[in-house]
Write a structure and sequence with these properties.
This protein is α+β, with helices and mostly antiparallel strands and 100 residues long. It contains four helices and four strands, in the order ββαββααα. A hairpin with a 2-residue loop joins β1 and β2.
């Protein structure tokens, strides 16, 4: 197998360095929003995350939803409820169930 090689500059990002990886390479490998960086004796490899469970926080719509909730809560604080009242009785509901 022939490997492709591309020399790219390292950019400053805060106190770290960043690099731009060609989108076509990421697409071909099925890499989307996160990667594993693997340090080896030969260098640094970029891989698809192993065994990572997708998180709702990775979904672009999640940020929009949180923004909507915050905006609505600020516009209508009278509609906010007491979380203590909301969770009253949960002890009975979860009795005998182990939670994380």
């Amino acid at each position: 197998m022939a490997y492709e090689r591309k020399t790219v500059p390292l950019r400053r990002t805060g106190g770290s360095r960043s690099v731009v990886v060609p989108k076509s390479w990421l697409d071909e490998l099925g890499i989307e929003a996160r990667v594993d960086l693997v340090r080896t004796d030969a260098g640094i490899m970029i891989e698809r995350p192993h065994g990572e469970t997708p998180s709702i926080e990775d979904e672009p719509e999640f940020a929009h939803f949180l923004h909507f909730l915050a905006k609505d809560a600020l516009a209508h604080p009278e509609q906010l409820g007491d979380v203590g009242v909301l969770t009253e009785g949960d002890d009975e509901l979860f009795r005998g169930v182990e939670t994380d």
